[in-house]
Design a protein that fits this description.
This is Transketolase subunit A. GO terms for molecular function: metal ion binding; transketolase activity. Its cofactor is thiamine diphosphate. It is a single chain. The protein is about 40% helix and about 10% strand. It contains ten helices and seven strands. The strands form two sheets. The protein has a five-stranded parallel beta sheet with strand order 1-2-3-7-6, with helices on both faces. Strands 4-5 form a two-stranded antiparallel ribbon. The longest helix has 22 residues.
Amino acid sequence: MDIDKLQNKAVDIRKELLTMIYEAGGGHVGGSLSSVDILVALHYGVMRLDPRNPKWEQRDRFILSKGHSVEGYYAILCDIGFFSKDELKTYRKFDSKLIGHPSNKVPGVEASTGALGHGLSIGIGMALAGKMDAKDYKVYVLMGDGEQAEGSLWEAAMAAGNYKLDNLIGIIDRNGLQISGSTEDVMKLESLKDKWTSFGWHIQSLDGHDITGLIRAFQSIPVQKGKPHLIIANTIKGKGVPFMENDPAWHHKVPDSQQLNMALQALDAQYKEVR
């Protein structure tokens, strides 16, 4: 799939997740929008997956550690064939598998997440298993930047460096905001690069909305044998919808019908002509 098609796919996913949140009456808008390009790069351009065989042993593993931003993830799993559009429409409805945080009852979801700081530990277990079983799959863990204040995450970061898990890729969605404001006002995180480097990780910092750059970075891994890899993806919370961008109020706010229409119109203008 060429880059224009991938960028258009990201627009599709943003429109879908906004509609899901509006119809469900709940969800996490800002962080879902900021992570879409990362998810698109991975699921359409990098990872080895087989929706017809979700438990294929050689598949790459993905864990959404920032589990509250699940809407775009569900939309992508549906789009690539893990479950139907009819099931996607049950999001947050009574007795649906598609609850407000990832559930491993959903085809394609590797781990139930939502309690921040736990996804990396799960990923380490999967990466260790891959090494022990001599499998060549990779494990990708998408974390939030507010999540970096969780102590359990740093225990995991230390363990990954200790076990030289070069089949493990962490990604930080660095949008700079969390529900109560700026991450640096809530808990100073910088320098993230220095912190993660000290735990034995190889670090790349790049534009988290540059799908081409993301794919190239993912495909270059492992850069250094014996080192887990971290991508600090610099993003914009609410990306793609001007009145939602960089506004922490949209962390967990539901658009009304007028706001939804405005958002969808803004996104429609971002489609690229594909020849």
